[in-house]
UniProtKB/TrEMBL annotation:
Protein name, UniProt field: Elongation factor P
Family note: Belongs to the elongation factor P family.
Organism: Gangjinia marincola
UniProt-listed Gene3D superfamilies: 2.30.30.30, Nucleic acid-binding proteins
Main location: cytoplasm
GO terms of molecular function: translation elongation factor activity
Sequence ranges assigned to domain Elongation factor P C-terminal in this UniProt record: 130-185
Gene that encodes it: efp
Superkingdom, natural source: Bacteria
Amino acid sequence: MASTSDIRKGLCIKYNHDIFKIIEFLHVKPGKGPAFVRTKLKSVTTGKVIDNTFSAGHKIEDVRVETHKFQFLYSDPTGYHFMNTDDYTQIVLQEQALDMPDLLKEGEVVTVLINTEDNMPLSVEMPATVELEVTSTEPGVKGNTATNATKPAVLETGARVNVPLFINEGDKIKVETDKGTYKERVKE
């Protein structure tokens, strides 16, 4: 049993007869009244995101998890296929277990959280950034740089990201996986 002081991003808890992963949290101590923790929880079974507020000191039931490195192989209509980098066993996960499935590139190594009670995979944690190639984007319009102007771009995985005007087709860029936003151009 844990309490609200143990809440952190990525923690898996049992709540309302389901297992949820904490994706955002904020400890709030108002001037008047008791402290509380505002959280955003994502169900690992359905992928549904809910907002919840726990009062300070509230007991929460955490789920013991192990982390294993898996390599993304491919996706098909049955799901996303991963291979354990230690013992080469393969697992198939559904789309709701992934936070940003459109940023997954074949061969990418991710961390999979596995429930120690029943050895079921709970969720996939992507690396902080991924390097992807821009497959199509409009050329930047000269003179349109008074502010931080951006344009849409399609990446090699099919993901759509807004990029600065100087990015061209064929450039490799870093994308932040938690927000799905452009970070920087990769120097070759």
